[in-house]
Each structure stands twice: as C-alpha cells, then as structure tokens.
Design goal:
Layout (H helix, E strand, L loop, with lengths): L2 H9 L14 E6 L1 H4 L3 H11 L5 E6 L5 H6 L6 H7 L4 E4 L5 H4 L1 H17 L3 E5 L10 H16 L3 E2 L1 H11 L15 H16 L9 E5 L5 E6 L2 H19 L1
Helix pairs in contact: 3-10, 7-8, 9-10, 9-11, 10-11
C-alpha cells in the first residue's frame, strides 16, 4: 500500500475515540528525558488549552531514570512524595526506553508498586509506551507486548506512543521523528506523542488542534513551545487518532 493510499485512509478515518465523562484536571508525568525532551507535558497542556480544556500537567523526571529510582527516591527524585501530595487525577508512567527489553521483570515489579502508590493517592495510573530506536524498528514488538502485559496486570490504560511512531514512520519514512541521536524525539516527534496523550487523556480526537503551541514567559511575552506546518500537524493528529482508537478497540 503506497503513501497516497495510506493518507486517504487516515483522512477518511472517523472520529471514534472513546469518549470520557470526566476529563482529568491534573496529570503528573513520571519518567526521564523521553518525557521532558521538548517539554512534552507542556505540549499536552497547551493542546488541551487550545481546545478549551483545563488540563494541568506536571512532571517528575531525571535523565535516564528508571522506575526503581523513582520508587526509591534516588537521584534526588521525589516522585512518591509528589504522587501522595499532588492531588492528581492521573499519573503517567514512562520507564527507561530499554527497560522492557533488558529488564522486563523490573518493569513489571516496579510498575505494579508505583500503580499501588498511585491508586492509594486517589489517582489512576496510565502507561507511556515508548518507541523503537530509529535504527532498530523491530524493538516495538517487545516494547508494545510488555507495556500491554503490564497494563493488563495493573488494569491501566496504555498510551500507545510507540505504535504511533511506527505507523508514522511506515507512512512517511522521511518525517524525522527523532533527534540526531536516533533515540530521543524531535519536535515533531514530541508533537505526535502529545497528540496521542491528548486523545488518551481527554477521550477526544486531536484533529483540529493548532499546529502552533504558544504560551507566555514570566514577562508575559509569547513563548513558542512547538511549531509545525499545518500539513505535518494534521498528519500527526490523524496518526494519533487512528492508533488511539485501534488500541482502545
């Protein structure tokens, strides 16, 4: 199937995102650089604001960190304290990008421990499925399998960001979802990931969100968090919509 045909399929895909009666107001993102690169939580907040949704986002992150370090409070992380005292509605969990491949037992163990802490605080967990490295697209098979398995164990939804990357790369190999290291996300990769989270957190289609995400700095001046072309933004929105719907189904 060629790119033109795939594009038509996405453009004709109906908005079937599972609707939610209650949209979360406070979301904590727990993870590492795959979360804080290009301000992913802030992107999600601004996408929601663009659609007149009040969704505050926060983060507890450290570069290269693992869930074990979050749980044990290592590397200066105060994740458990934030979970217990933050009055969050949802806590998004993102482990080290190779954890599902190299340390699957740890993924399951600390994923369950963190989910317990989250639920005891009154919040709900959501898993952040990461993506393959640019040079090894087959990583997604194990990554998706392990995150699905953990999601089933803890009865938590999984945000299929990795699957959105896979679909986008198949449709547009030149799209440039990665930073120069082939591991972290680029600005458009962050935009795509944020579209997936918008869909999963709100239950709404990301189609129609602005291609420019703008806020203000401390002086009240415009601060451009993410800028994409209208064409690229719509492509990301449609990919996120399809993957979210397929994953929910």
């Amino acid at each position: 199937m060629n790119y033109f045909t795939l594009t038509l399929i996405l453009l004709s895909f109906s908005n079937q995102i599972l609707s939610q009666s209650i949209i979360p107001k406070k979301v904590l993102f727990v993870g590492n650089s795959y979360t804080y690169y290009w301000n992913l939580p802030q992107n999600v907040h601004l996408m929601a604001a663009d659609q007149d949704i009040n969704l505050e986002t926060f983060q507890s992150t450290a570069g290269g960190s693992k869930w074990s370090q979050h749980f044990k409070g290592q590397r200066g992380l105060k994740t458990i304290e934030k979970i217990q005292n933050g009055n969050f509605d949802i806590v998004v969990l993102q482990n080290h990008s190779r954890s599902s491949l190299d340390f699957p037992d740890s993924l399951m163990h600390y994923g369950q421990l963190l989910a317990t802490e989250i639920r005891q605080s009154g919040a709900q967990p959501m898993l952040y499925m990461t993506w393959s490295r640019e040079w090894d697209p087959f990583m997604i098979e194990t990554i998706s399998e392990k995150y699905k398995e953990l999601g089933h164990k803890i009865s938590a939804p999984v945000a299929p960001v990795g699957l959105a990357f896979e679909l986008a790369r198949k449709m547009r190999p030149e799209i440039g979802l990665y930073a120069t290291d082939g591991s972290h996300q680029s600005t458009i990769g962050t935009y795509l990931a944020s579209c997936v989270f918008y869909a999963m957190l709100t239950g709404r289609s990301p189609v129609g969100i602005s291609s420019r995400l703008i806020t203000e700095d401390a002086a009240g001046e415009k601060l451009y968090i993410n800028i994409q072309s209208a064409e690229d933004a719509l492509f990301c929105q449609k990919v996120a919509e399809k993957v979210a719907n397929d994953f929910i189904d």
